[in-house]
Amino acid sequence: MKTAIFACNTIRDEVLLAEQHVKSGHEIFWLESNLHNFPDKLRAGMQAQLDILDGYDRVLMAFGFCGNSVLGLKTRSFELVLPRVDDCITLMIGSLDKRAELANGLHSIYLTKGWLDHESNIWREYEYTVKKYGEEAAKYVIDVMYGNYDTLSIVDTGAYDIGTIFEQAKRIADKFVLQEKVIEGTTSFIEQLLTGPWDFPRFLIIPPFCTVEAADMILV
Hints:
220 residues, alpha/beta, Rossmann fold, 2 domains, 5-stranded mixed beta sheet, 3-stranded parallel beta sheet, 9 helices, 8 strands, globular
């Protein structure tokens, strides 16, 4: 079967490392980052790319459910394979159970190089608010949005030297009074996505000419 990979630029480093490991040879189509705060726009972007895809039998989606952004996606003459995870962080940690274990009751903001490079993240939101409203207003807004978080978790997937983002991570942690720590990540889930098997409950398979329904997205 001719297979395509749809992947988010935010996890480009991890997808490329996974492909280097498994050598699937599938063509990769990169989707725009910076839309995770806007699920409807992210869904529209995904669907637009799927609609112009031609000649493929299967599409592997290197995405999590990401705020229900995959809900309502429609397949054409191909089947769609999606990891059954809430977001890309869980995809890079390896499983929902592993994420819960690593969190250990803490409320974490998760950090990767891709998150810093591509996403509208807490630091960019802070800088924008400072520029528009001033330091005090920015601190208030961030406290309201992120005041219940206590940890900044750097996810080390092995896809790059995490030392290159330590300085920026420390700046963010210090500014928002967060405990900084490094947690173990992996590309194993992405590697299984690229090669199979796509067994339940780790994966969701949507047949040709079907739609992703709410019942498909229940995580167990």
